[in-house]
Amino acid sequence: MSLMERKTAEKKNKILNSALIVLAEKGYHGTTMEDIANHLLMTKGSLYYYFKGKQDLVFQSQIRILHQSMENVKAVNQEDLTIEEKLKRVIIKHIDYSLTEKAGFLLMINPAEIFSKEQLTEIYRLREAYAACYDKLIAAGVEAGFFDVEHIPVARNVLLGAMNWVTQWYSPEGALSKTAFAQLVTDYTIRIVKK
What we know:
Blueprint: H1 3-26, H2 33-40, H3 44-50, H4 54-77, H5 83-100, H6 102-106, H7 117-144, H8 152-169, H9 178-189
Helix pairs in contact: 1-2, 1-4, 4-5, 4-7, 5-7, 5-8, 5-9, 7-8
């Protein structure tokens, strides 16, 4: 990647991060490109240099989140851990990432309300690839005798549902730090698959 490409990618990431803050405050339908540009102290025209519009900006943020989520699983899979430890670590990473990128994760709740058919196809393809990472871990855990799961897709969806829902009810002002909270939720959710 050339220096210019790196600078463009960094700028796009900065815009995405800032846009998600505005979107979290005002919601998708209540946010305009002008709001995002104002928050970044940019002109709207400069914003359109990087993104076709609000829908494209949000779509690219979702793609970024899904790719990073899969990279997180890949990194854990390369560690020398038991299957149970790997699944625990993947759950912790997912919870931590979802709370760090809360605004982006909240936009994932109803993608059909925001995206075109082509965009939805890509988002669902990446979601399925991410779900498959969990299916492989759970299947390996069943085979190794760590987990007792009859229907892997159902178990995986229960895990992911619980993990994704933390964005709705975790509060940084609560009694638990984000790290302690992620560990506690992991301890509870891992029971879904454990023998």
